[in-house]
């Protein structure tokens, strides 16, 4: 996933390899690549308690990143998540609105959301009409 994103943006990339003992518990995290004097963007599918992304942000800052952002598909933000994000070194944590975020944004100003209702509606319409959904990967409706 990271290679595809980096290629489309024509940028270099680093990645964080994580090993889990069990759900919501990272055993080990290794940064692969150089982030010195760079803006780092963490990309993940979802964040629940945010222990992993906050740990990753700390690792990026300690490795020399000048700013850290997170882009997540689903922001669940349960338990200590908001407190962790508020105390972490993120400039912003950007999520989609697949889960309502208005109340959580009141308690965590670093959270921002992107409205994806139009692309979901178009995907549903295309599925219903037997049209290509993969077309949306390169032609996002606004």
Automatic annotation (TrEMBL):
GO terms for biological process: 5-phosphoribose 1-diphosphate biosynthetic process; purine nucleotide biosynthetic process. GO terms for cellular component: cytoplasm; ribose phosphate diphosphokinase complex. The keyword Magnesium applies. It is an enzyme of class 2 (transferase). InterPro entries: PRTase-like, PRTase_dom, Rib-P_diPkinase. Gene3D superfamilies: 3.40.50.2020. GO terms for molecular function: ATP binding; kinase activity; magnesium ion binding; ribose phosphate diphosphokinase activity. It catalyses: D-ribose 5-phosphate + ATP = 5-phospho-alpha-D-ribose 1-diphosphate + AMP + H(+). Keywords: ATP-binding, Kinase, Magnesium, Metal-binding, Nucleotide biosynthesis, Nucleotide-binding, Transferase. CDD domains: PRTases_typeI. Its EC number is 2.7.6.1. Pathway: Metabolic intermediate biosynthesis; 5-phospho-alpha-D-ribose 1-diphosphate biosynthesis; 5-phospho-alpha-D-ribose 1-diphosphate from D-ribose 5-phosphate (route I): step 1/1. The keyword Kinase applies. Belongs to the ribose-phosphate pyrophosphokinase family. This is ribose-phosphate diphosphokinase. It comes from Melanocharis versteri. The gene is Prps2.
